[in-house]
Amino acid sequence: MALPLKYNLRNVTVRWRSTVATVLGIALVVAVFVLLRALARGIEANGANTGDPRNIIVVRKGSQAESGSLITRNQFRILQYFEEIARNERGEPVISAEVVLIISAPRRDGSGEANTLIRGVTPRGIELRPQVELTAGRWFTAGKREIVVSRRLAARFARFEIGGIIKAGPARLSVVGHFDGQASAFDSEAWMDADEARSIFDREQYSSVLLRPRDGDAAAALLKRVEADKRLALRAEREVDYYSKQTMTAVPIRILATLLGAAMSIGAVFAAMNTMYASVAARTREIGTLRVLGYSRRSIVVCFLIEGAFLAAIGGVVGCLLSLPMNGYTTGTIDFQSFAETVFQFRVTPPLMLMGVVFSVVIGLAGSLLPALRAARLPVISALKSI
Amino acid sequence: MSRPVNTGTFIAKNALRNKRRAALTILSVAVSCALLVTLLTLQRELTIPPESEAASLRVIVRNKVSLAQPLPAKQLATLDRIPGIVAVSPFSFFGGNFREETVTSFAQFAVDPARFQGIIVEGKVVDGSYEEFVKDRNSCLVGADTMKRYNLKIGEKMRFTSTFYPVDLDLTMAAVFQGTVDDRGVFFHHKLLDELLGDPGTVGTWYIRVASAEAANDVIARVNKAFENTSAEVRAETERAFQMGFVSMWGNVKVLIGSISTVVVFTLVLVTVSTMSMAIRERFRELAILKALGFRRRELFSFILAESFGLATLGAVIGIGGAWAFWTFTDLQSLTKGFLVYFQVTPRIMATGGVVAALLGIVASIAPAVAVSRMSVVTGLKTLD
Question: Which pTM value belongs to this model?
Answer without folding.
Answer: 0.82
